[in-house]
Amino acid sequence: MSTQAPSAVPLATTKANAASAKKSAEELHLTASQRLRSQNLRYTPSRRALVDILACSDRPLTIPEILEQDCSLAQSSAYRNLTELIEAGIVHRLIAGDEYSHFELAEDLTSHHHHLVCTQCGRVADITLSDEVEGSIDRALEAAASSVGFLAEHHRLDVLGRCATCTSARG
After folding, report:
1. What is the distance between the alpha carbons of residues 19 and 25, in angstroms, rounded to a whole number?
2. Cβ 33 vs Cβ 43: under 8 Å
């Protein structure tokens, strides 16, 4: 984790950089290929295109947004391939409350982050928190979990509210 100020920093400025720093594009594709092979699946050009699109995005994307990025992808095969990428541990699916699921690369292929979810339009934005804030969250969640005999291994945090566009449109 970076040593930034305790405030949240939009992941848009860091997600692609963090992904390439942690796993180069070549390593990312090698990992994806190996994970698919372990499921007896091939790393097809369509699956590779989906991984590339998600790797280059600064936030989780819906199917329509993914299809806008590559018009050669068919919607039905995009859904099928995303399902297989999820099952292979390459992609993570988020349910944001709007009519679409959002998709992003699995956290172990990028970096630890959280989500800001607009309850009005469904847009999802990635944010990273400072090490200090992450540590505080970890300690609080571990204490709450252990108080009921639960062993916390990892956390995901979705902050629900209204994005700037929806807030300003509401007046």
Report:
1. 8
2. yes
CB atoms within 10 A of CB 157: 13
The crossing angle, in degrees rounded to 10, of helices 45-56 and 15-22 is: 120
Query: To which H or E segment does residue 151 belong?
Result: none
Residue whose C-alpha is closest to residue 94's, from 71, 137, 63: 63
The Cα 109–Cα 146 span in angstroms is 28
Let me know if 15 is exposed, middle or buried by CB neighbors in 10 A (0-12, 13-18, 19+): buried
Give the predicted TM-score (pTM) of the model: 0.77
What pLDDT digit, counting tens, does each position of 20-68 carry?
444 588 899 999 999 999 999 999 999 999 999 999 999 999 999 999 9
